[in-house]
Give the backbone structure.
Amino acid sequence: MPPAVWLITSIVAAGGAYAVAWPAWQSLRARRDRDTNTDRYLRWRGRAPRDAPSPAGPTGDERRRLAIGAVLAGVAAVALIAFLAGG
């Protein structure tokens, strides 16, 4: 394949990985921060549960979007390496 095709594939796959995974990552981080703030407030008010729950993990949709983003990032990396290797 011509090197330009590898470069375009790399750019498109990297953009797709960003578009798919970034909103899921931000949602996961925001939920963890919100949960942490709630726990901190409950401790301050003296109403925290005795056994502190662990932070919630990603939802099924977030996990799926992060996995798709990782696959697309892998495709982008392979295409970039092929471009740099000269096609």
Observations:
- The CA atoms of residues 13 and 71 lie 9 Å apart.
- Helices lie at 3-45, 60-85.
- The chain has a mean pLDDT of 88.
- The first helix runs from residue 3 to 45.
